[in-house]
Amino acid sequence: MARSSALLAAIMLFSCAHVGTPPENDKTETEGVTLCSSDLWTGMTLRETAGGAAIDDFYFLSPAADAGLRKGDVVREAEGKTIRGVRDLLDALRGKRVGDSFAVTVDRVVETLSLRRNDKPVEKPGDPSGAIAEFVAKGKSGERLELSSTRKIDKIAASIVLAGLPSSVRILALPAAEAPSPKEEKKGAWIGVGMEDVKDLGEVGGTKGEKGLALTRIYENSPGQKAGLKLKDVIVAVNGERFPSAADSSPRLTFVEMLKGKKSGDSLLLSVLREEIAVDARIDDRTTPVEAGKLPSVLQGLNPGETMTARLAKVPRMQEIPVLLGERATALPQPTLSLEEIDALHPELASYKSDVERVAEKLMAATKTRSRYDDLIKRYVEDERWDDGFRLKEFRYLHCNPFKIPKISDDLATALRERTAAAEIDFPALFARAAGLLDEGEKTRVEPMPLKTGLSLADHAARMEVVLLAASRLRDEAFAGLPRADAEYLWQNLPGLAERLILDTHLSDPEEIKKRGDIDKRLLDLLRYVDERKLFLSARMLSTLLSPFYLETLEKDIAVAAASAKPGESVLFKKETALGDIVFGAAGNDRYIQNAAIIVDIGGDDFYTNRMGTSISLDKPFSIVIDFHGNDRYSSFENGSQGHGFMGVGMVADLEGNDIYIAQQWGQGSALAGVGLLYDRGGHDSYRGQEYVQGAAFFGIGIHIDTVGDDTYQANLYAQGFGLTKGFGLLADIAGDDVYYAAGKHPTGYEDNPGTFTGLSQGAGLGIRCYADWSMSRSGGIGFLLEGNGKDRYEAGIFAQGGGYFFGWGLLYDYGNENDDYIGTRYAQGFAAHSALGSFMDEGGDDRYRGLSQVHSGLSWDLTCVSFIDKGGNDIHEEGGFSRGATAHNGFIIYHDLGGADIYKDQVARSGDNGYHGGSSLTVFIDEGGGEDSYDDRENNSIVAQKEYSLFLDIPGRIGDLVDDETLPARLKNEIE
C-alpha cells in the first residue's frame, strides 16, 4: 500500500544547549538608537537588552563595522567599564576625539551548523529552514535529514577608530528615562550653528594669543539665527568666560562641554567679534548716515549738482548677544527673510539694471504705479518664507528680482553651452557647475586619477579599478548618514515614489495615500540625509575616464590588443572587481547582456541591453559604457538604463555612429538620488523613452548631450530637460535639425482640453504641491533644454518648453537662426504657475508659436515670474486668449521680441485678474526693431499702459534708446487713469 513520502520521511534534529543567553531571547529590547556624540561617529545603532546594548544596524559607512563588529553583537564593556545599556556607552564616549580608539568587548552568538541528508554531509548548509522546507515538500520515502546546531557566546574585543560626524545624519534618538526628574523634563540644548576653532584671535581683530570659535553655518530657524548670530561671527567668550588658551585646547570641544549641562530654555550670553563695514559718507559737506548695501541707491538718488563721497572700512566690533537655547528642530518652519538678505546672494548684481528695467521704471513713474510693483516684490518675498529645506538659492534670488531673470538665464545658458559644445568637454567642470546650481557646489579639486596610456589592457583595467574604488568611497560617504536599513529602504521604495508621481503629480490621490502615504513621507524625509556634495564628487571623479585625451590614446591601446586577438573573439580582456566587471570588447558586432562596472568597446554595430550604464545594486552603484565606433542599438525593457544614476552613477559615452536608444523609465541621462550621463558625439540618432528620460533628475544630476546630427527625441512625460525636487536635468543638443516630442500617453485632466496630454518636459522644473499633506510638499528643481544650431520642431503636452511649477525653474534656449516650430498644449513657451519661474529664448529665424488651448505661449500665473525673448525673425504668434505676455494673480512677465515683422493673433500684454491674493501683476511687453508688426488689439509703433498692470511697447528703434528719452512720458498712452 503506497504511503505519502512526507509520512515516511524521518527528520532527526539534534541541538546542544545554549551557552549564555542569546540576544534574540531578551524580552527587554528597545527601538534602535544611534551611538554618537555632538561630533563623534561610530556608525551604528543599538537597542537596550538585559545587561547590555545590542548592535541593531550599521550606517552606510561605519567605523564600528570596519572594526569587525556585527549585527546582534551585545556590547558588555567599553573602555574597561561595564556596559548595562546605551546610556553607559554614551558616557564612555565622553572626552574622546576624532581619530581616537574606542575599545569595546562584545558577546557574539556563534553558531555551528551541519546538515546530513541520507548520511551524506550537505555543503554550505546556510539557513536550515530552507533545507527543512525543501525536504518536507520534496523528500522521498525513506530519506533522512539530520541537523546538528551548536550555539555559544564568544567574547570579542574590538577597537573602533572614531570618525567625525557626517554632514547629514539621520540620528535615532535615545528615549527618555523612565522616571525623569522635573529638571530633566527639558530636552537637550541646541544652538543650531556650525563652528571651527580660531587659534589666534589676533588674526581676526581680537586679543592676540587668545582662542575663539568662528561660525561656519547657521541653521534655518535655529536659536542661533533667532538671536542674530551671523556667518563669520567669532565667539570669544561664553557667559563672560574666555576659552582656554593652552596649545592643545579646542574651543569647539570646550563649547560642546558647556552645552552638555544645559537644557532647552536655558540661555547663554555670547561675546561675539563681528566684522562690520563702517561708512563715512558725505553729500557735499553734510554727513549722511547710510549702510554700505544702500550706497548704490543713494548715489542714484542724488540731485543735480550734488556730490557724494564715501569711505568704507572693515572694522571688528565686539557685541554681547544673548541666546535662548532650544531643541533640535524636527519640522521646517518659515524662515525670516528680508529682500536685503536675498539680494546678498548676487552682490555683483547689486547695481545692475537692464535697459528693460530702466525703461519700465520710467513708465511706472509716469503712471504712478511704482508702489504696485514694490508691493508685488514684497509678495514674492513673503512667498519665499515657506521653505521645505530644498529651495534653491538661485530660484529664491530670481523670484524676488524678476527683472534679472534674462541676465542670469543668459549667463547660465552661455556657461552650459560653452561646456557642452566644446570639442573636448571637461566633464568634471560640467558636473561642478550643475552641482552649484543645486547649492551643492564643491571647490574641492578632483585629483587626477592614475590613468596612463601606452599600457596593456590589464594595466588599464587595474587603473580603472583604482578610479572605481576612489569614487565608491565618496559615494558611500554620501549615504553615510543613513543606517544601512534606511539606505536599503530607499533602494527598494524610491522608484515607487517616482512612479506614483507620474500618475499623481500632487501626491494627493486618496486611495494612493491609503496604500503608500506613510511610505512616501518616510522616503522624502530620508532624502534629507543624503550628502549630495559627496555624490557629485564621485561622479566628477568617474568622469575623468571620459577625458578626451585619455579616450584618444585608450582607443589606440585597445586597437593594439585587438590586432593580436583571435578571429571572432568578442572580449579582449575582462577583470573582475568588487564593484563589477571591467570588460574590453573587440571590433565585431557584439551583444552585451551581462551587467558590468565598465565596458569599453572599440567598434562594430553593437547591441546593449538590460541595465547597461546604470547603477546595478546598492553595493554596485556604478556602470560606465564607452563605445568608440559603430551604429549601435541600446535597448532595455527594464527601468534604469543608458546613463542612469540611482543612488550611484551611470554613464554612457558613444563617440561615433547613427545610434538607436530605447528606454523605459529612467534612462538616457537621468538621475534618482544619483548622477546620470548620456554623451553621444556623432551621427543621426534616435532617442525613445517613457518617463524620466533624456536629461531628467530627481535629487541628483541628469545630463544628456548630443553634439551633432539630425536627431529625434520621443518621450511621454518628465523628459528632455526636466528637474524635480533638488534635481538638475539638462538636454543639450549642439547642432542639427532636431525633432522633440513629449506627450501621447498621460491625459491632462483639464476638462476643457479633451484629447490632450501632460508633458512637463522640454525645459521644465517641477515641485511637489501636495494638497493632502502640506508637510510632504517639496520645492522644484531645474530643467533645461539647450538647443544649438538647426531647424527644429518642438511638440509637448501641458507645462512644457521653458517653465516651472511650484518653486521649479524651467528653461528652453534655442541658439539657432533657422526657422523653428513650437507646438505647446497649455502652459508652454515661457510659462510658470504657482510660485515658479520660466525662461525662454530663441536666437533667430522665422519662428511659429502655437498651442492647443487658449492658454499657452508666454504667461505667468500665481506668484510667478517669466522671461520670453525672441531675438529676431518674422515670427507668428498664434491665437490664444491668455498668452503672449499674460499675467494674473501676482504674476510677472517680460515678453520681448527684438526684431522682424511679426504677427500677433488675439490679445497681447493682458494683465489680471488678481483675485487669489489681491494686489496686482505686471506685464512688460516689448517689440522693438522697426518691423511692420501685426496686432489684433494693438497698434504698431505705440506705447500703452493698462490696469493691473501692463506696459506695452512697440517701438521702431531699440529699447536702450528709451532709457534717456525725455519724451517717453509724453508718448505714453495711459489707460490706467
Considering DSSP H and I runs of 4 or more, what fraction of the residues is helical?
Answer: 10-25%
Largest sheet: 17 strands, mixed
CATH class of the domain at 5-177: Mainly Beta
Strand residues, percent: 25-35%
CATH architecture of the domain at 5-177: Roll
**C-alpha termini separation:** 108 Å
Rg estimate, integer Å: 32 Å
Give the helix tally.
Answer: 19
Q: How would you explain this protein's 3D organization?
A:
The protein is of the alpha/beta class. Among the domains are: 5-177, Pdz3 Domain; 188-326, Roll (Pdz3 Domain). The relative contact order is 0.06. Mean pLDDT is 88; it is low at 1-30, 175-186 and 329-333.
Short overview:
With 977 residues, this protein is an alpha/beta fold. The termini are far apart.
Could you name the key traits of this structure?
977 residues; globular; Pdz3 Domain; 13-stranded parallel sheet; alpha/beta; 17-stranded mixed sheet; disordered N terminus
Sequence-ordered SSE layout with sheet pairings:
Layout: H1 5-8, E1 10-15, E2 33-36, E3 40-49, E4 52-58, H2 63-66, E5 74-78, E6 81-82, H3 86-93, E7 101-117, E8 120-121, H4 128-138, E9 144-161, E10 163-164, E11 193-198, E12 212-218, H5 223-227, E13 234-238, E14 241-242, H6 251-260, E15 267-283, E16 286-287, H7 295-300, E17 308-324, H8 339-343, H9 355-367, H10 370-383, H11 393-400, H12 405-421, H13 427-437, H14 457-478, H15 484-503, H16 510-526, H17 532-542, H18 548-563, E18 571-575, E19 582-585, E20 591-592, E21 598-601, E22 607-609, E23 622-627, E24 633-635, E25 644-646, E26 649-654, E27 660-662, E28 670-672, E29 675-680, E30 686-688, E31 691-693, E32 696-698, E33 700-706, E34 712-715, E35 717-719, E36 722-723, E37 727-735, E38 739-742, E39 764-766, E40 782-789, E41 793-796, E42 803-805, E43 809-814, E44 821-823, E45 828-833, E46 837-842, E47 848-850, E48 857-861, E49 865-870, E50 876-877, E51 886-888, E52 892-897, E53 903-904, E54 922-927, E55 934-935, E56 942-946, E57 950-954, H19 968-971, E58 973-974
Parallel strand pairs: 1-9, 19-21, 20-22, 21-23, 22-24, 23-26, 24-27, 25-28, 26-29, 27-30, 28-32, 29-33, 30-34, 31-35, 32-36, 33-37, 34-38, 36-39, 37-40, 38-41, 39-42, 40-43, 41-44, 42-45, 43-46, 44-47, 45-48, 46-49, 47-50, 48-51, 49-52, 50-53, 52-54, 53-55, 54-57, 56-58
Antiparallel strand pairs: 2-3, 3-4, 3-10, 4-5, 5-6, 5-7, 7-8, 7-9, 11-12, 12-13, 13-14, 13-15, 15-16, 15-17, 18-19, 56-57
